[in-house]
């Protein structure tokens, strides 16, 4: 006998969600719920999974070690938006995307979502069962779309948001890829010269008893140190990575490191503008989709991925609960307070006292410009907060692009100069005693 999943309202106005016992028909289910003193607002057949269906589901899944990448999730959202615009039922759309998905985390999640929907759950409820694939931003926007009957529109906005976020992410990665690659190869070339080429020259100089100039002596000492302690080359980066991971596993250390990242020269400005662009677009998308402002701010805080911005958004949340606007708490809390953890990271990673001095000079720097505060204020006064947030995001994304291009233009010649200086120093240090040796040999041959 079937069971029915229902939503009803009790005499106090509270919404009740439950599943009936086994009944013979839908009318009997309606009568049973009314006998409980409830008013039925929704009633659907509750499809329990049979052993065969569960076995089939398990067979469809595969082992997946990694989470769904942002690129795959963006493509999935765009495809789901297109299928919904075409008028297909949501379950059929998900089944189509599940069948064409490659084995992995996304396919496994879609199998779970389809099974939950077949059991009577809504799309947002089904996606909430897969938090590793669909975050709170995704789920809340879907929930808002379901409540407003505009799931197609919400999916389109969500796909546009994810695509813009992905484009911004690619720009940042492309800006960092070139200098990282150049530094990596330059380090490899220098290590090769110092560990295999320089020792051959040193042996020649020792055999002929040539007096070495100070630059060559320094290079000899550096080479001996490198040969004796070669394990420090991979060891130091690994140790730094582990140290940062351990430190940032605590909220206090994470706050200090995030503030350090926002204050480092050149790249700190890029990181700051990237976060502002992402958070304002996230908040604007949530507000446009009809998500309550407190929920929208809480989700934006979680997606900022920076403790400094999280604290600011938390203060904004507290201000709104006390009856304040969004702009006022933003203005009051846009200057991060002094943090000993940030000072410690500057001391460790930026030449000790020099880094500490730089941090103290940047202590009163703001993470939000006046333009952002004013735009948010105007948006609240005119009732177009989402429009203003989108404009802020557009402006900052353009600034990120400009900074990225400027960094690329600046880093290319700097990297060439760096490599040339390192290799040139080694060559000069080796040829200075070679010239002395050749001169002595020539004078001896003349005698």
Topology:
Blueprint: E1 3-9, E2 15-19, H1 26-35, E3 39-46, H2 51-60, H3 70-85, H4 90-100, H5 105-118, H6 123-128, H7 136-148, H8 151-208, H9 214-228, H10 232-248, H11 251-263, H12 267-288, H13 293-303, H14 307-321, H15 327-332, H16 340-349, H17 353-361, H18 370-382, H19 385-446
Antiparallel strand pairs: 1-2, 1-3
Helix pairs in contact: 3-4, 3-8, 4-5, 7-8, 8-9, 8-12, 8-19, 9-19, 11-12, 11-16, 12-13, 12-19, 13-14, 16-17, 18-19
The average pLDDT score comes to 83
Count, helices: 19
Q: What integer value in Å does the Rg equal?
A: 31 Å
Low-confidence stretches: 49-56
**Could you tell me how far the N terminus lies from the C terminus, measured between alpha carbons in angstroms?**
116 Å
Which strand order spans the largest sheet, edge to edge or round the barrel?
2-1-3
- Percentage of β-strand residues: under 5%
Order of helices and strands: EEHEHHHHHHHHHHHHHHHHHH
How many runs of DSSP E, i.e. beta strands? Answer: 3
Q: Characterize the biggest β-sheet.
A: 3 strands, antiparallel
Instruction: Please give the share of residues in helix.
Output: over 70%
Which word captures the global form?
Answer: elongated
Helix/strand structural class: mainly alpha
């Amino acid at each position: 006998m079937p069971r029915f999943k229902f939503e009803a309202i009790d005499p106090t106005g509270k919404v009740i969600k439950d599943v009936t016992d086994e009944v013979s028909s839908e009318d009997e289910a309606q009568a049973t719920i009314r006998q409980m003193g409830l008013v039925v607002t929704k009633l659907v057949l509750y499809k329990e999974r049979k052993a065969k269906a569960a076995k089939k589901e398990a067979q469809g899944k595969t082992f997946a070690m990694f989470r769904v990448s942002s690129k795959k999730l963006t493509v999935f959202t765009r495809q789901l938006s297109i299928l919904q615009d075409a008028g297909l039922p949501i379950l059929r759309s998900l089944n189509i995307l599940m069948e064409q998905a490659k084995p992995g985390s996304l396919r496994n999640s879609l199998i779970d979502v389809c099974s939950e929907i077949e059991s009577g759950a809504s799309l947002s409820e089904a996606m909430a069962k897969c938090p590793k694939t669909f975050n709170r931003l995704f789920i809340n926007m879907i929930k808002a779309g379901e409540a407003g009957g505009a799931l197609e529109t919400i999916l389109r906005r969500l796909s546009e948001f994810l695509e813009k976020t992905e484009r911004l992410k690619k720009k940042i990665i492309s800006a960092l890829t070139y200098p990282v690659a150049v530094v990596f190869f330059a380090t490899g070339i220098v290590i090769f010269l110092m560990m295999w080429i320089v020792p051959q020259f040193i042996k020649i100089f020792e055999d002929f008893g040539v007096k070495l100039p100070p630059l060559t002596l320094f290079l000899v000492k550096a080479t001996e140190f490198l040969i004796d302690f070669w394990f420090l080359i991979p060891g130091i980066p690994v140790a730094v990575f582990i140290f940062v991971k351990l430190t940032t596993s605590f909220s206090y250390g994470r706050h200090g490191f995030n503030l350090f990242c926002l204050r480092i020269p050149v790249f700190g400005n890029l990181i700051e503008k990237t976060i502002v662009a992402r958070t304002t677009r996230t908040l604007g998308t949530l507000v446009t989709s009809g998500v309550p402002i407190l929920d929208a701010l809480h989700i934006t805080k979680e997606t900022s991925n920076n403790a400094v911005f999280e604290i600011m958004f938390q203060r904004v949340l507290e201000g709104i609960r006390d009856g304040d606007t969004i702009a006022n708490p933003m203005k009051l809390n846009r200057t991060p307070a002094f943090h000993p953890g940030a000072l410690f990271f500057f001391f460790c990673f930026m030449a000790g006292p020099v880094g500490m001095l730089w941090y103290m000079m940047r202590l009163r720097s703001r993470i939000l410009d006046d333009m952002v505060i004013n735009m948010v204020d105007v948006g609240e006064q005119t009732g177009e907060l989402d429009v203003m947030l989108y404009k802020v995001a557009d402006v900052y994304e353009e600034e990120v692009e400009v900074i990225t291009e400027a960094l690329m233009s600046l880093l290319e010649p700097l990297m060439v100069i760096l490599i040339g200086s390192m290799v040139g120093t080694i060559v000069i240090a080796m040829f200075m005693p070679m010239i002395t040796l050749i001169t002595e040999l020539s004078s001896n041959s003349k005698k």
